[in-house]
Amino acid sequence: MPGVGLVVLIGCGRLGSAILEGWLLTQTVAAADLIILSPSEKPAAEVARAQGARINPPLEALAEASVIVLAVKPAMWRDVVTPLLPFLGDRAVILSVMAGVTAPTLAEGIGGWPIVRVMPTTGVSRGRGVASVWSADDRARALGQALFEPMAETVVLADEALMDAATAVAGSGAAYFYAFTEALARAGEAAGLDAMTADVLARATLRSAADSMGEDALEALIGRIASPGGSTRAGLDALAKDGRLGVMLDETVAAAVRRNREMG
Ligand SMILES: NC(=O)c1ccc[n+]([C@@H]2O[C@H](COP(=O)([O-])OP(=O)(O)OC[C@H]3O[C@@H](n4cnc5c(N)ncnc54)[C@H](OP(=O)(O)O)[C@@H]3O)[C@@H](O)[C@H]2O)c1
Questions:
Q1: How far away, in angstroms, is 159 Cα from ligand 1 center?
Q2: Which of 12, 91, 140, 243 has the greatest CB tally within 10 Å of its CB?
Q3: Each residue's pLDDT tens digit, 44-92
Q4: pLDDT of residue 1
Q5: Which ligand 1 atom is at minimum distance from the Cα of 74?
């Protein structure tokens, strides 16, 4: 695709495969412009190979790369990247999707190449992810946006320190909604539904709510369901009693931010 150039994906695990699938699905990167480095065979990489991607070519091929995407575990990135550095061209950008590895830490191990950090969700595989992007370098940031905007709702963060908060909301958020859905099903059971019926209703409601959300303000969406004096309003009042919903979520996000910082 014009503007992105040759992309090297290092690591084709859970997130790396999701990114690869998203790029091909949304035609963000043409398979012919992809190099994938992976110690073992991966289904997503094999699909890309069949369309023209190169898997583990001689490292000389990296000289033309415009972006190197690091999608390995945070504990191993130095060992993976160090042997590749002599092969990179001057114009390469390093894009890290690794949680908790800061730009200064990356720069200290990598040297002079511009760095962009992106925190995506695996929903990118279906072109429906969420991604937070941060870079101190304009060209690197633009490249990060170009690679993720087609497959994720993307926000650009003003400060790298906000990456922990963005990860606590977006990266962990789906799990919070699932936990809420589970609790809603259990509450339905307590109100007399059998377990399977409560589970079907709670899950279908989450799906339906997500489908109906669109771009409308959340307050307006709530107002459309909760008429004054009605049953939904009674439920919402109980949920927010003494501000407990807000307090609970403040604590939830703060705990995730703290853990992100500890791991960083
Ligand atoms: N999973 C998520 O939802 C998510 C979300 C946001 C950020 N992240 C970040 O994404 C990164 C990857 O996470 P993950 O969940 O995808 O982990 P993962 O499934 O364990 O994937 C890591 C991959 O790195 C590969 N690898 C190991 N050594 C390598 C080498 N020398 N060269 C190239 N690849 C190598 C592994 O290959 P083998 O399988 O062959 O060992 C493995 O497939 C982490 O840093 C994590 O913080 C993940």
A1: 25
A2: 12
A3: 999 999 999 999 999 999 999 999 999 999 999 999 999 999 999 999 9
A4: 44
A5: 45
177-198 mean pLDDT? 98
End residue of a domain, out of 158, 187, 214: 158
- 224-251 burial code (b ≥16 CB/10 A, e <16): eebeeeeeeeeeeeeeeeeeeeeeeeee
Quote the CA–CA distance of 12 and 42 in Å, as a whole number.
Answer: 7
Domain limits at 250? 167-263
Q: Any idea which residue has 């992309």 for tokens?
A: 7
Identify the residue whose C-alpha is closest to ligand 1 atom 18. 13
**CB-based pocket (< 6 A), ligand 1:** 10-16, 37-40, 71-74, 76, 80, 97-99, 119, 122, 171
Residue nearest to atom 9 of ligand 1 (CA): 98
Residues 67, 154 share a domain: yes
Q: What is the CATH number of the domain that holds 199?
A: 1.10.3730.10
Asked if 130 and 251 sit in the same domain, the reply is no
Locate tokens 């409560």: which residue? 198
Quick check: is 1 in a domain?
no
Ligand 1: nearest atom to the Cα of 11: 34
Please check whether residues 12 and 93 belong to one and the same domain: yes
Q: Is the pLDDT of residue 213 over 60?
A: yes
Q: Which of 38, 169, 263 to mutate to test the pocket of ligand 1 (most atoms within 8 A of CB)?
A: 38
Minimal-distance CA residue to ligand 1 atom 40: 40
Q: How many domains does the chain have?
A: 2
**What is the spatial distance between Cα 13 and Cα 70, in angstroms, rounded to a whole number?**
11
The β-bridge relationship of strands 54-55 and 115-120 is unpaired
